[in-house]
Amino acid sequence: MSVAQELNTNQDSQEDVIFPPGDLYSDEPPLETELHLRQIILLLKCLEWLWRDRQDFYTAANLSIYYSPTQRKSQDFRGPDFFVTLGTERKTRKSWVVWQEDGKYPNVIVEILSPKTADIDRGLKKQIYQDTFRTPDYFWFDPDTLEFAGFHLVDGEYQLLEPNNQGHLWSRQLDLYLGIHQGLLRFFTPTGQLVPTPEEVAERLAAKLRELNIDPDTI
């Protein structure tokens, strides 16, 4: 067999080769608007700050989840806007590859609605997250209209969550509420306290120091 023939044979056979572990990059398109980006970053920052001492979870945004039963990158993948997986190692990943993560799927998914994606998020994606991912908690939020809804998996089907008196929805998986604060989706503690960003924590500390006649800029 000539070198050219061998190369052609190798190229043909490579089409059926399963992608090796660790070689699956995320394949998600850019977020649609700056508001979507800010919303997702806000969720990431708040949860990572709240759980800064924990190493048993993974959270990401706009990252591909590969779940092909034949372990192929080219089929069966979705990219939730925001998701959290519990009981796993907290480390950087190129993507979430189910067959490399002990078969784990996200425990919580949040989709940020837009005119282009709303129907899919309410329909096809909801069905996939219910029937295939079996994700216990699913939420969606529209930063333009403030539409907000959440679901919890009960006996294999999503049941609509009822809001509390503050309009917040409870996530059993996170042990936190999700609710709208100043036009954006935020986390709240079980007692209803807003989960802050690191910047908000710093601002509160600086304000407290000023009350004590201490200039925070001199510390």
UniProtKB/TrEMBL annotation:
Record has Coiled coil as a keyword: no
Residue ranges of domain Putative restriction endonuclease in the record: 14-179
Segments passing through the bilayer: none
Keyword match Nuclease: yes
InterPro entries referenced in this protein's UniProt entry, alphabetically: Nuclease_put_TT1808, Restrct_endonuc-II-like, Uma2
Annotated Polar residues bias: 1-12
UniProt KW keywords: Endonuclease, Hydrolase, Nuclease
SUPFAM superfamilies xrefs: Restriction endonuclease-like
Xref: Gene3D superfamilies: tt1808, chain A (3.90.1570.10)
Region (Disordered): 1-21
Molecular function terms from GO: endonuclease activity
Protein name according to UniProt: Uma2 family endonuclease
Organism: Dendronalium phyllosphericum CENA369
